[in-house]
Amino acid sequence: MASEGIEIRNLYKIFGPKGGDYVEAVKGGMSKADLNEKHGHVLGLNDINISMPGGKIQVVMGLSGSGKSTLIRHINRLIDPTAGEVLYQGQDVCKMTDAELQNFRRHKTAMVFQKFALLPHRTVLKNTVYGLEVQGVDSAEAQKRAEQWITRVGLEGFEDHFPNQLSGGMQQRVGLARALTNDADILLMDEAFSALDPLIRMDMQTVLLDIQEELQKTVVFITHDLDEALRLGDRIAILRDGAVIQQGTGQEIVLNPADEYISDFVRDVNRGRIIEVDTIMKSADAPKDALIISSGSMLEDAAKKLSESGALNANIVDATGKPLGSITIHDTIEAMVTPSTH
What we know:
alpha/beta, globular
């Protein structure tokens, strides 16, 4: 069953001994630079409002210093906010007692770090069961669950290896197995694949997508890489200087960038892998002998099918086979290389 979503409302973080004194000034328009220059405080998060969907992957992206890692650490309250709310299952994480917060961290959240954060003196198996040991789960049950996830992430046979005997990609698989073994509702992934080589990184993205299709966790994934964000994210929020500049689906952001900053981000994106055929289809039906393409298909896949079949047109149909509209090979290719006007 899909997890519940996370609601972040009016969240501010001002680093410094008197951060609370400057919330109203920031609300009034004081910039990050002015706050630092005049008052010696750093604006980490500025009025963050994000509805993170349950059972989906919410990507938070931005350049270094944008506030994305600060934001994810508010979800399990590794950082206390200056103002605002982080709501899960109707409860504000920011107002939990110590006991409630400990329970929330142990049972509702799991975290995967960029630098793996494995215990060097523990084997793969012992690292994977660590969270269950903390929870007090019976050792036989803990080992059974850990072995299942070690196999699931492709590390069967490596249970007795130590972290320094593994490659970076293998170490991150251990980190992922450890997080999944805890069976937490929320999976927090802070630049989890950023330290990996490009091919290994792609492989780990595939592993995550496959597992997510099965488990439907609420995943919050931090990255500075737009291609990674577009591949993984059901929804994406882009931060700059601690504020949300734009949020939406990958297609919405690529088609309608909010400003020049976002436009620069998406300029070189492979549009064919992001934009769906529904976006460019016309209401008129194609000829009866035209190709049939499913609603939700990406332009790149549609263009490939049209090219391979030699067809010039295709009817777009829903899951029941009902016609929704039509596309042409010309419009499909044009939309892949130029901004759509639809």
